Amino acid sequence: MDWKTLDDMELGGRRVLLRVDINVPVQDGRVTDATRIERIAPTVQDILDRGGRPILLAHFDRPKGRRVPEMSLEPLVPALQAAFGARVHFAPDCTGPAAEAAAAALPEGAVLLLENTRFEPGEESNDPELARGFARLGEVYCNDAFSAAHRAHASTEGIAHLLPACAGRLMQAELRALERALGDPDRPVMAVVGGAKVSTKIDLLRNLVEQMDMLVIGGGMANTFLYAAGFGIGRSLAERDLEQTARAIAARATETGCELLLPRDAVIARELAANAPNEVCRVEDCPEDAMILDAGPESVANVMQALERARTLIWNGPLGAFEYPPFDAATNACAAHAAELTRQGRLVSVAGGGDTVAALNKSGAAEAFSYISTAGGAFLEWMEGRTLPGVAALRGD
Length: 397
What we know:
It is built from 14 helices and 17 strands. By secondary structure, the chain is α/β, with parallel strands linked by helices.
C-alpha cells in the first residue's frame, strides 16, 4: 500500500475537501436509494470525530459543463444529514467567492456540500485553474470516490497534486480488497467473467489470462467462445465476428497455464422469457432453433470443483440470463458455493460491476463475499490492469 489514508493526516481544525460519489437516484426531489451516501458516512464521521471540517465535492448526472437546475445536489441535503447525523450546509457553487465564503464559515461539527462539480466546464477536462479553485477551499484532500477514480478530472486527479492527499475509508477498503485479489493474491486465483459481450471485456480477458490460474467464462460471452471452438450454438446471443479474438485469448490461456473453463452443457430454450420451456443438452448438441441461456448442471459442478481448489476469487458478470428464471440457476448455485467457502475462511471473494452486484444480491450470496465493489467502470479498469488516475494521484505518481 503506497498511498496515504486519513490515518496519515492531521485533521484537527482543518478543512478537508472530500471527493465522494453521491450520484444517487432521486425522484420528485427525494433520494430513493441512499446506499452510496451511507457508504461514505464512516469517512465523514471519522473526519468530524477528529475535529476536521468535511467539504464534499461531488458530481451528479451529466450536465456537460452547464448549470442544469434538475441536476443540483441541493435535494440531497436531507439524506446526507440523516446519514451523517450532522448539520449539512449547502453552497450554490463549487468554486469561486461563494464557495470560498461558505468553506471559511463552516463551523466545527458541520458538513458543507458544494454544488455539482460537473456544472463547471473545466471539471471533465481536468482544467488546472479549476483544480486550483477547488484547492483554495481546503487544506487536506481526501478521495473517497473509487468509482470516479478512473477519470482524470479536476476534482479527482488535478486537485490531488495541490494539497496533502489521502484515501477515505471507502476508497481504502476498495483498494485493499483489490490489491488482495489482484496485487498479491493467495493462489490458486480464479476469475469468473460473464455477461453478454466479449467486445466490452477484451482487455479484461487478455489481462486475466496472464494472471489467473483458472478463468470461468459464462453468459453470452461463453457462446462466442463456444462458437469459436467450432460448436453450433443455434440462435444464441454471440459475437460471431469476434471468433478470431476468442481463439487468440483461448490460445494465450493455454500458453500461460491458465485453465479456461467453458460450459460443457447448457440450459436451452426457444424464447428468452421468465419460466420459458427449457431443457438441458450438451454444448455440441444445441439445436439450430434454440438459444443457450444458462450453464447446465455439469458445467455448474465443474465451476464448483474449481472453487474448491481456489483461494482467491474475482467475479464479474453472471453465468446466464439471470434476469429470467430459471436461467439464473447457474449464477445462483455458483455464487452460493463461493459464499459458503468464504464463510468457512477458505476463499477470499471479491466481486464488482453493475450486473454482478444485482446478480449476487438476487442470489442472496452478496453478504458473505469478502468485498463487493459498486464502482462499475473503475472496477473493470482495475481488473484490466490499467492505472487509475485518481489512485495514482494519491501515490504522487
